[in-house]
Amino acid sequence: MQPNAVVQPSSRGYGPPPREKGRRSGVVPARSADAMIKMNLPPLMGRRNAAYDCAAELMTGVLFSEQSSSEERRRICPRLLSLLESAEADTRAVLAMLSSPDTEARERNQLACIEMFCSAIRTLYCFAELEARGFDGRSRFHSAPEKNGLPPLHSTESVIVARLHDLFMRSHERIRRYRGYAAKNFSAANAERHARSYRAYSELYHNENNYVSRNHELPD
Prior knowledge:
Elements: E1 8-10, E2 13-15, H1 30-38, H2 41-63, H3 70-95, H4 101-132, H5 153-184, H6 188-215
């Protein structure tokens, strides 16, 4: 009932006046609302894909490099997590907009992969932090692990990195294939909207990566 509406008698008793034919109520029809929500899907996917691709570049360029030290891995882990958590959040938002069971299944598979990457990198970062703080025996509070028959901490890090690399190699191509399926369903206009979003966020994320590589963290 609208404010200040005149209450008039009707066959059903007192109530709001009957709505005039064709009168706009201010409520968007469900079909139109659904269409407006889905307009956000291509740029949202573009942002998600840009975050994932920038994270993938860091993983292949630094994390999986045999020349990377524990300190280098520790330095890039927060940035990796930031990118992957952004991709994870956007994937959840994408899932809330979908109506196709096939597309939803593919997006859920992508989400599962991204979640596993996040979990592995959090664990890796914890091990790198422990090593940096002397938990591997360099601290006066701990004896060297070799004296207790324990493997050095960096060997555990190496196992996590190897497992993460294996997961990445098995899932990366699948994720790109899923993205190809999604792109085929875009109209020409939506494909362009996706591409513009991808380019804009790729540039942003790459600039942030470059800043982190020079300064070790983003400014507040």
